[in-house]
Amino acid sequence: IPGTVASAFYPELFRRGGSDVEAHHRLSSLQLRLMSVIGLMMTLPLSLYARWWVSTLFGTEWVAESGQALRIVAWLVLLQSFNFPMADALTTLNLQHRRVYVSVTALLLGTVLYLGLSSRYGVIGAAWAAFSTELFMLIGFTIANPRGFVTLIPNVAKLLRTTILGLTAWWLCAQLTQSVWLGMLVFIICIPLIEMAQTKIPPATLGQTLKRHIKMMKRPSI
Predict the structure, then answer these.
(1) Angle at 202 between CA 14 and CA 188, to 5 degrees
(2) Residues contacting 55, CB < 8 A, separation 6+
(3) pLDDT number for residue 142
(4) Are 104 and 133 in contact (CB under 8 A)?
(5) Dihedral sign, Cα of residue 114, residue 118, residue 120, residue 123
(6) Residue 103 confidence (pLDDT)
(7) CA of 35: how far to CAs of 121, 125, 127, 134, 196, in Å?
(8) Is 93 helix (H, G, I), strand (E, B) or coil?
């Protein structure tokens, strides 16, 4: 899903990257914000209800170890929601060589971590290896981008507030009912509402903004 969303921004990022760096930065920040919110909406239900997901899909005999592994792996979705726009920003600014350097280094690091951690700690070790590799890529892409920290840090700060408020709403709901479906619904409803409240954008204005950007993305590049 993060890759699918990222592909929608790609043509417009390329167009702006070659003509208007400031506009490119704004669009890249929008892409990062949108994708991170979607990633958070997927990550929290997967991580918090990891044992339920494993039990439902594979049976209770898989819960003990696989449930803990899924709790870790679920955060890869959020990390990838950051990594895709940060990597695309490099490519569309004609800095793809930096993206390659980071990716190759991450590949080598990931290979070492997978071999070392999985052989020692099994599936849990492999899950931490995957998490560490994605985190390394995020740090690398951020450092490689001249405006990486300016793009990343404000969005991370806002997403952290959204996470805290979303978890608070989930916790209050959990005091009233143990329903898994209702708990997941809290995240799906609350996280977008919290984001809109933080950005102070009315729903109608948000819809118009998204439509405008979609039209811009559909417009052929010159």
Answers:
(1) 80
(2) 62, 63, 67
(3) 96
(4) no
(5) positive
(6) 95
(7) 32, 27, 22, 16, 14
(8) coil
Cβ neighbours of residue 65 closer than 8 Å, sequence gap 6 or more: 122, 123, 124
Question: What are the CA-CA distances from residue 206 to residues 203, 211, 212 (Å)?
Answer: 5, 9, 10
Identity (one letter) of the amino acid at 105?
T
Provide the pLDDT for residue 222: 40
Place of tokens 């700690």: 121
| Residue found under tokens 């709901």 | 173
**Structure tokens of 156?**
């991370």
Q: Phi and psi at residue 163, in whole multiples of 5°?
A: -65, -45
The token pair that represents 111 in the structure block: 């290979």
**Residue 29 CA, distance from chain mean position:** 13
- Consecutive 10-residue runs of the chain (222 residues): their mean pLDDT? 70 78 86 89 92 88 84 93 92 91 96 93 93 96 93 91 90 86 88 77 52 52 42
Q: What is the pTM of this model?
A: 0.82
CA distance 93 to 157: 25
How many other β-carbons are positioned within 10 Å of the β-carbon of residue 142? 20
Integer Cα distance of 222 and 217 in angstroms:
12
Contact present, 65 and 188 (Cβ < 8 Å): no
Neighbouring C-beta atoms of residue 118, cutoff 10 Å:
17
